[in-house]
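Design a sequence for this backbone.
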């Protein structure tokens, strides 16, 4: 009475997305129809291995199993589902993603498939957030990194300079963030300086420290945006080590006589560190420079860490400590129709405030979703570290620095060191440019990554953030045109550096 192939074709046609996930295998008709209609990836999630084995013993599914675009997950745990999506789904290459439940199958194991659907949605949310960042910063990251390669060729071999006269590993460290509470904590930070405590400053807090006569032992900057330039205007770094993400604006390295580059999570930064010159690795997954500073002092072996100005909130309607870039920035932009107060107010209210998690707290502060995310990530990292971490007296917002019940023992991490490059920066960029130009043409309705060799896959992975940026600005581009356009633009960008 029912033609299963025809019904499967109708079901898939209604979805019409390149990345399709089926909850339930059924008779295999739906995933087969999706592959025939050109889906780039077809994923089936089902449970009960015995039933699937019985079905495969009775029916020939050679067409599915030999197709490189088909994936079958049997009895997968929740985390495996999330990891699979994070690894295989790329919005730039696949476009949309759709989950199709086979109703007659999912009703038999309703709780398992509901949990599966929730895990899929969690993974999609993570991918979506990461994709949004890549689409916004992808071009700038690429441009900054390839320009910093030339400067990185001659950067110091270590984070640490012997003339600073401090022993390694560092036992006690202070991190200076730029929250409003830093105004009140400056005297305590001065005491740390007198006790020869290692002081690391976020780039935003640097002018505040220098204005108060406190010279930090290192400064960290991770932002790829050119607004970072304002943090260093009027600051005399002299021999203070400036720790820079290799995706930082190229002009920043000129502010210090000892700039040191590190590699974060960008695939091009990782590729450079593996294929050209090894760079130190810092964890920047928290999305803010205070988190990166915590990773830095962890690498240095600090066992006691104090946070200054780490508010992750606006205290009494103040966004940053006095002396940070924001005040001269808006002062220079003010006029009779828009005084500095108007600029500061617009900056304060640019994002909606969240309700307080603890309504009984007396401190007057305001949180946004982004600031709360930053705080939660820092709390999560701190809970997994063995170091004794605390906030300085006078902190405006309580940061929960409780340890996790079972802390994985942090082994002493050797000081991050870079090594001499085996070839020149120009030679490496020429080689990398040739690798991009040699990437094969993309066809329609194919898994492009499966088409590449291991070496080609490594190079193409470095372009994915740029692909996201191109896709955002040219949403109409098909896969073939999108990849060709990205290759063309990246080769042009490298040619400008090599001139």
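Sequence:
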């Amino acid at each position: 009475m029912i033609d299963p192939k025809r019904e499967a074709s109708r079901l898939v046609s209604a979805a019409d997305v390149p990345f399709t996930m089926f909850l339930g295998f059924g008779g295999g008709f739906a995933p087969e129809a999706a592959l025939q209609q050109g889906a780039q990836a077809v994923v089936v999630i089902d449970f009960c291995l015995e039933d699937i084995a019985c079905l495969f013993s009775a029916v020939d599914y050679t067409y599915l199993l030999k197709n490189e675009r088909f994936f079958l997950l049997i009895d997968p745990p929740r985390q495996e589902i999330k990891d699979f999506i994070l690894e295989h789904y790329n919005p730039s290459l696949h476009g949309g993603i759709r989950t199709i439940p086979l109703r007659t199958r999912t009703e038999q194991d309703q709780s398992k498939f509901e949990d599966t659907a929730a895990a899929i949605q969690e993974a999609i949310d993570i991918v979506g957030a990461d994709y949004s960042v890549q689409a916004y910063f992808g071009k700038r990251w690429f441009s900054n990194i390839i320009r910093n390669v030339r400067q990185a060729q001659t950067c110091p071999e270590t984070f640490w300079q012997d003339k600073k006269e401090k022993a390694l590993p560092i036992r006690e460290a202070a991190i200076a963030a730029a929250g409003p509470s830093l105004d009140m904590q400056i005297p305590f930070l001065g005491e740390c300086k007198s006790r020869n405590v290692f002081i690391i400053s976020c780039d935003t807090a640097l002018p505040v420290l220098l204005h108060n006569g406190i010279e930090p032992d290192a400064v960290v900057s991770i932002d790829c945006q050119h607004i970072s330039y304002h943090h260093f205007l009027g600051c005399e770094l002299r021999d203070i080590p400036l720790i820079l993400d290799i995706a930082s604006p190229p002009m920043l390295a000129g502010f210090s006589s000892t700039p040191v580059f590190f590699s974060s999570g960008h695939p091009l930064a990782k590729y450079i560190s593996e294929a050209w010159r090894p760079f130190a690795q810092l964890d920047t997954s928290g999305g803010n420079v205070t988190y990166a500073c915590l990773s830095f002092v962890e690498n240095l072996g600090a066992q006691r860490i104090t946070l200054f100005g780490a508010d992750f909130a606006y205290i009494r309607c103040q966004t940053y400590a006095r002396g940070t870039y924001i005040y001269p920035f808006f002062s220079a932009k003010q006029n009779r129709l828009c005084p500095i107060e108007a600029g500061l107010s617009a900056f304060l209210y640019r994002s909606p405030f969240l309700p307080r998690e603890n309504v009984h707290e007396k401190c007057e502060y305001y949180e946004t979703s982004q600031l709360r995310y930053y705080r939660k990530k820092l709390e999560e990292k701190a809970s997994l570290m063995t170091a004794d971490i605390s906030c300085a007296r006078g902190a405006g917002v309580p940061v929960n620095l409780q340890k996790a019940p079972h802390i994985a023992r942090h082994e002493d991490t050797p000081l991050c060191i870079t090594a001499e490059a085996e070839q020149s920066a120009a030679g490496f960029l020429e080689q990398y440019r040739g690798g991009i130009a040699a990437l094969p043409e993309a066809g329609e309705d194919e898994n492009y990554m499966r088409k590449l060799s291991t070496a080609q896959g490594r190079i193409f992975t470095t372009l994915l953030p740029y692909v996201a940026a191109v896709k955002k600005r040219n949403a109409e581009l098909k896969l073939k045109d999108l990849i060709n356009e990205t290759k063309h633009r990246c080769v042009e960008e490298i040619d400008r550096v090599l001139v």
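The first helix runs from residue 4 to 15.
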